[in-house]
Write a structure and sequence with these properties.
The protein is mainly α and 145 residues long. It has one domain. 89% of the residues lie in helices and 0% in strands. It has four helices and no strands. Helix 1 packs antiparallel against helix 3. It is rod-shaped, with a radius of gyration of 33 Å. The two termini are 21 Å apart.
Length: 145
């Protein structure tokens, strides 16, 4: 088997493995998003306290149905986000498992071909010791060019 092909396959596997998402970076981004939402809620609460009571009551009456719908949408969006995060984690885990499986398979195939090459080398040396002429394909290709 061509050693360059094995090297290329192993290089591609290393590149695929290096593209893995760092769990710490993912958790940090999630924490930043949560803190930004909390800051938005705090700012909204500050704005509500600054409005006159009559104006607040009027706004509550006017926007109560919309607020209920927005709360439902927010709840559904949070549920969708949680599900998408779980699916993304599952997919990344599966992808990494397949890359690891492929790396193992390439190693197995490469070691198998090395074993075959070693056996051929032993066979050739035995034949040469017994006086046989051994023609190698590599030598034929070099002489033909």
């Amino acid at each position: 088997m061509d050693q360059d092909a094995i090297a290329r396959a192993q290089q591609r596997l290393e590149e695929a493995a290096s593209g893995r998402t760092d769990p710490a970076a993912f958790d940090a981004a999630l924490e930043r998003a949560r803190s930004a939402v909390e800051a938005l809620a705090a700012t909204t609460a500050e704005l509500e306290t600054g409005l006159p009571e009559a104006l607040q009551d009027g706004l509550r009456q006017h926007f109560r149905p919309s607020a209920r719908h927005l709360a439902e949408v927010r709840g559904l969006m949070n549920q969708v986000i949680r599900r998408l995060e779980r699916i993304e984690g599952d997919m990344l885990g599966e992808r990494h498992a397949r890359v690891d499986d492929l790396a193992l398979l390439v190693d197995l195939v490469a070691s198998g071909w090395r074993a075959v090459e070693d056996r051929f080398t032993q066979l050739e040396s035995r034949l040469q010791r017994e006086g046989a002429v051994v023609y190698r394909l590599e030598d034929r290709d070099r002489h033909a060019s």
